[in-house]
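We treat protein structure as text, and this decision shapes the records that our systems exchange. Because each token names a local backbone shape, the row as a whole describes the fold. For reference, a complete record is included directly beneath this paragraph.
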Amino acid sequence: MDQSELKRCIGPQSRRQFIKIGTAGLGGMFLNNLHSARAQEKNLGRQTPETQVIFIWLPGGPPHMETYDMKPDAPSEYKGEFKPVRSTVPGLDVCELLPLHAQTAKRFSIIRSIAHNFSDHGGGHKKFLTGRDPVSPVGFVNDYPMVGSMFAKVRENYIAKIPNYIAGMDGGRQGIDTFSFGSAYLERSSHPFMVPGDPSTPTFKIQNLGIEEKKLVQVKERMDLLTSIDGSNASSEMKAIRARAMQLLSDDTTQTAFDLNKEPESVRQKYGMHTYGQRCLLARRLVEAGSSFVTMVLESPNMPGKQWPKGVLYNWDSHAVNGHIFDDARWRFPMYDQAITSLINDLYDRGLDKKVLLIVTGEFGRTPRISYSVGTQTGVKQPGRDHWPQAMSVLVSGGGLKMGQIVGSTNQKGEHPKERPLSPNDLWATMFNHLGVDYKNIAFNDHSGRPMPMLTGGDPISELI
């Protein structure tokens, strides 16, 4: 890396600010955030979908050689400070900072051989999340729909008492382009219902649901007024969105699903009273309530009441200039370990493992060779790893797939796939296969009216199905 690149890399950034809407815009606020329900009346009786996905997104790129693809025999400038530990599955070793993963290994599989060629955060997000090469290798605005939006479009006629497609993230990070969650040429109705904020704090509240009875009456009056003004000119889509908005605002079932206080304290403690743990617990509650696709972004490693040590990073973007990769891991990994394994075990123990597929990944891995730079936080020279899309590790669990195995491998230094090279599209083909989506025969019209297939390639990973 030359000197011009030795500036702090701040990872995925939003291109839009969250739009603050006053009381006069209450109706519009709810319509914009509850757009995911374009349902037909015949589906109103269905409560839970047959198949679901929890997608845990780790923006910035987790280090594969500090998590699920350690190389203890590699040269010292590659292998890092931590040692692998044996798990309950022979050959599936994980980092010593992930002991709960080691105990839970029979309930998940690790894919070690997914790779692509886009090393910028923007390009990496777009490539990984859409399954297509982006027009620009930088920036976060999608040229093609994110896979969650594709699925929301396919399942647009399904309805339950909760938004069908939900995404949770840190406050201020809910712009649709922050993580390339945009729907491109699909309608805004395929965007997720955004849930910003830290669910581990006592003040956490879903901003777009809970509403006082007095304001609910005001919103209903305004929606009735809009309907009377529109008359027969209102589209069926808009009528459905308005009806759905009122249903979600007035139904206690919706608000209850988001209320973590309904969980026993012992369960909350099991997941961990930190951002990662409570966000993963919320994901489980939302699929139980009937949401089809729940994305949770694990970014800031917050633990209420505790101050981060120097060198800890905001997200997973572990350049040396940003932070000390090993000190960051010592702080971040125990919370991540607790949250992910609690979610895995909960899905299995509650009998959801056939129905719900869990996917945990970032946009790429990190450079196998350790780099050093003076940290902006610490002011001293420290280790880090840079962007590396040529190798990464992905965790999958449930979905009725075959667990307790490793798919693929990288070479001795963790540089590139050695066995069973795969692409992000193979992961998405596996996911769509679980969801019962005929992705090879479904296409969406782009802005010019040209039919675009859901995926341009990829096959379900045979070792898993």
In short: The first strand starts at residue 52 and ends at 57. The two ends are 41 Å apart (CA to CA). DSSP finds twelve helices and 18 strands in the chain. Residues 213-257 form one domain.
